TrEMBL record:
Required for maturation of urease via the functional incorporation of the urease nickel metallocenter. GO terms for molecular function: nickel cation binding. The keyword Cytoplasm applies. The keyword Transferase does not apply. It is found in: Cytoplasm. Pfam families: UreD. Its main location: cytoplasm. This is Urease accessory protein UreD. One of its GO terms (cellular component) is cytoplasm. UreD, UreF and UreG form a complex that acts as a GTP-hydrolysis-dependent molecular chaperone, activating the urease apoprotein by helping to assemble the nickel containing metallocenter of UreC. The UreE protein probably delivers the nickel. Keywords: Chaperone, Cytoplasm, Nickel insertion.
């Protein structure tokens, strides 16, 4: 296994408006277990290899500097090759902040999962601080027999402050065909984002996407989770394909995670 040493990692490209940085993770099967032939951090991304669980390789993304700030262009590329099992998490929440420029920041995630491979993308939440402006995308390409668990959580504003603006898009293709393509925007400038049809006054929103070929034989059933609406609610619904999508809103990040975790446990019943 070859890992990038600190000397081999290129320095982030700083421009007049922000940082340009890309992190790359590649998982492949060697000798019956998953290894990490590519683990390259860049700029604010420091990648740490965690203890494996069985045949699964695990990676933690550690923030090495404040990011994303206005004007930053950040990207993570992760690939699980045929038969590999890869789990990616983060050490702490990602904090989007206002930068020295009014230019928006971008945070792009590109995931590729090969035949009989699986990838768990389970980072800590994104917190959009007051004055921040972030555009975030996930682009996922799955082989027909691939499995995916993807969680994304957004907390709008720190305690006692107004929210920043975040626009996100999630695009998932399976076997070259679109499985899911959706986008949303929250915070100042996004029409109706705080109304009863969207967040209804809540400040935390998230999703859990599970793609599993086993759903072709036994598709998941619709479930509503949570009690009174003011405490947060989530709905688990099957997609038109071997997948389930959980969408949740809650007053804060803690209750949002409880809802998403409860929905994830339903999958194993």
């Amino acid at each position: 296994m070859t890992l990038a040493t600190p000397e081999a990692v290129p320095a982030p490209r700083r421009t007049a408006v922000g940082v340009r940085a890309t992190a790359r993770i590649q998982a492949a099967v060697r000798g019956g277990t998953t290894t990490l032939p590519v683990l390259d951090g860049d700029g604010p991304f420091e990648l740490r290899r965690l203890r494996s669980r069985g045949t699964e390789a695990r990676v933690c993304v550690v923030g090495a500097m404040s990011a994303p700030l206005g004007g930053d262009r950040l990207r993570i590329e992760a690939a699980a090759e045929q038969g590999a099992a890869l789990h990616i998490t983060s050490a702490a929440a990602t904090l989007a902040l206002r930068g020295r420029t009014s230019e928006h920041a971008t945070y792009d995630v590109r995931l590729t999962v090969g035949e009989q491979a699986q990838l768990h993308w389970l980072p800590k939440p994104l917190i959009c601080a007051a004055g921040s402006h972030l555009r975030q995308t996930w682009t996922v390409d799955l082989a027909p027999t691939a499995r995916l668990v993807l969680r994304e959580e957004q907390v709008l504003g720190r305690a006692g402050e107004p929210p920043g603006h975040v626009a996100s898009r999630l695009t998932v293709r399976r076997g070259g065909c679109t499985l899911l393509d959706q986008q949303a925007a929250y915070g100042p400038g996004a029409p109706g984002w705080d109304g009863p049809a969207v967040l209804a006054g809540h400040r935390a929103v998230g999703q859990l996407l599970i793609v599993d070929p086993a759903f072709e034989e036994t598709p998941p059933e619709v479930h509503l989770l949570g009690g009174a609406p003011e405490g947060g609610q989530a709905v688990l619904a099957p997609l038109a394909g071997p997948a389930a999508l959980v969408t949740a809103v809650a007053p804060d990040g803690l209750r949002l995670r409880h809802l998403l975790d409860a929905a994830h446990r339903l999958r194993h019943r």
